[in-house]
Design brief:
This protein has 377 residues and is an alpha/beta fold. It has 2 domains: 238 residues, Type I PLP-dependent aspartate aminotransferase-like (Major domain) (Aspartate Aminotransferase, domain 2); 126 residues, Aspartate Aminotransferase, domain 1. It is built from 15 helices and 11 strands. The longest helix has 18 residues. The chain is globular.
C-alpha cells in the first residue's frame, strides 16, 4: 500500500512553525510563571480582537469552555439544554456535568447544524438554553435559532469548536450568542499542542464571572464566592496559540481553496448521484470536508487501500448514546441518522494540499468501483 495520506495530521502544522513554537515554549520556561500569566492574558486579548469580541477567557478545554459558558449564563442543575444530535459527545457532556439535562433534536441537511423547527418543537417549560454547533466549520442557521430563543427567553451558546474564523455576513462566529465556546484541540483550525479552550462573552459581568468560575470560583481576594472549578489554559499552550493565531486567516483561505478544488473535481460524481458534497457557503472554514456516500464503508476501505486516510464524524448520533440519553425516550432524528451512516471526512488541512490530486484520483476510482455491480436493490 502507498504511504498513507492522513485525514488529519496536526504535527505537520507544528513542523511548519517549529522554530517559533520552540522559542515561545522557551520564553515561558525561562519566565517562571506557568499558570495565568502574561501569555494567557496576551492570548485572551489577541483572540478576542481577532473575533471582534469584547472578552475571551482561556480555559483547559473546549468541553470546559461549554460548561463554563453555561454556568456563566446561570444555567443550573435541573435546567434543560437543547443540543443537536449530530455533534461530538463533549457538547452534551458539558451540559450534563453541571447537572443540566439534555434534550437532543435533529439537524437540517444543508448546514448539518441544528434544525430551527426541531428546536422550536422541543422547547419545554424546563428549557433554559440551546447550544448551536457550527458543525465542520459551516455556520449553522443561527439567526433563525436566535429569533426563536429570544421569543422564549432562552440563552444561546455557540459551540465554535470547528469554526475558528467562520463568518455570517461581516460578523465572526462566536460573537452572536450570549456566550460561545472554542476548542483548541490539536486538530482544530487553530490548535494547541494539547488541550485548551476559550469562553467568549460580550458583557463585562459575564467575563468576570467566567474568570472566577475557571479558578475555583475565587474573587480577587481569594475568597470562593462561586462554585467553580479548576480550568485554566496554561502558559505554554497560550504562547503556542499566540504563534499560530496570526496564520489562521491564511490557513482558512487555503482550506476554502482545498474545498473548491474538491467541489470542482468531484462534480462528475455528484451529477451521477453517487456523492453529495458539503455546503460551501462563503463564511465556512472547512474544519472538515465531509461528503455523503450511500456505500461509505466500501468507499472508505477502497480509499485506505490506496493510502488515503478518512474520518467519520460522528456516528452514531448522540441520541443513540445510552449514557447521554439516560431515561428519556429516544427522539426521532432521521437526518442525523442518515448523515451518521453516510458522512465521510476527507483530508482538508492546508499542509496536505499537495496530495489533493492523489486523493481525488483515488476517490474517483473508489466510487466508480461500485458502478460495474449494477444498481442497488
Amino acid at each position: 500500500m502507498a504511504e498513507l495520506v492522513p485525514q488529519a495530521a496536526p504535527g505537520l502544522r507544528v513542523a511548519r512553525h517549529r522554530d517559533e513554537i520552540a522559542a515561545a515554549i522557551a520564553r515561558v520556561v525561562a519566565g517562571g510563571q506557568y499558570i495565568l500569566g502574561a501569555e494567557c492574558e496576551a492570548f485572551e486579548h489577541e483572540f478576542a480582537r481577532s473575533l471582534g469580541a469584547p472578552y475571551a477567557i482561556g480555559v483547559n478545554s473546549g468541553t470546559d469552555a461549554l460548561s463554563l459558558a453555561l454556568l456563566t449564563l446561570g444555567i443550573a442543575p435541573g435546567d434543560e439544554v437543547i443540543v443537536p444530535a449530530l455533534t461530538h459527545a463533549g457538547t452534551a457532556v458539558a451540559a450534563q456535568r453541571i447537572g443540566a439535562s439534555v434534550r437532543f433534536v435533529d439537524v437540517e441537511p444543508v448546514t448539518r447544524g441544528i434544525d430551527p423547527a426541531a428546536f422550536a418543537a422541543a422547547i419545554s417549560p424546563r428549557t433554559a438554553a440551546v447550544i448551536v454547533v457550527h458543525l465542520h466549520g459551516a455556520p449553522a442557521m443561527l439567526t433563525d435559532v436566535q429569533h426563536i430563543a429570544a421569543a422564549r427567553g432562552l440563552a444561546v451558546i455557540e459551540d465554535c469548536a470547528h469554526a475558528h474564523g467562520a463568518t455570517i455576513g461581516d460578523r465572526t462566529i462566536g460573537t452572536f450568542g450570549d456566550a460561545a465556546a472554542f476548542s483548541f484541540y490539536p486538530t482544530k483550525n487553530l490548535g494547541a499542542l494539547g488541550d485548551a479552550g476559550a469562553v467568549v462573552v460580550r458583557r463585562p459581568e459575564h467575563a468576570e464571572r467566567a474568570r472566577r468560575l475557571r479558578h475555583y470560583g475565587q474573587d480577587r481576594t481569594g475568597v470562593c464566592t462561586l462554585a467553580g472549578m479548576n480550568s485554566r489554559i496554561d502558559e505554554i499552550q497560550a504562547a503556542i496559540l499566540r504563534v499560530l493565531l496570526p496564520h489562521l486567516a491564511a490557513d482558512n483561505a487555503k482550506r476554502r481553496g482545498f474545498a473548491r478544488c474538491y467541489d470542482e473535481t468531484l462534480a462528475p460524481l455528484v451529477s451521477g448521484g453517487r456523492v453529495k458534497l458539503p455546503e460551501s457557503g462563503p463564511g465556512g472554514v472547512f474544519h472538515q470536508y465531509a461528503i455523503e456516500l450511500d456505500d461509505r464503508d466500501r468507499v472508505r476501505d477502497a480509499l485506505h487501500a490506496r493510502g488515503i486516510g478518512t474520518g467519520i464524524h460522528y456516528a452514531p448520533g448522540l441520541h443513540r448514546h445510552p449514557a447521554l440519553l439516560g431515561d428519556a425516550p429516544r427522539p426521532e432524528c432521521p437526518v442525523t441518522d442518515r448523515l451518521a451512516d453516510t458522512l465521510l471526512s476527507l483530508p482538508i488541512q492546508p499542509e496536505l494540499m499537495a496530495e489533493q490530486d492523489r486523493i481525488v484520483a483515488a476517490l474517483r476510482h473508489a466510487v466508480a468501483g461500485d458502478a460495474s455491480r449494477g444498481p442497488r436493490s
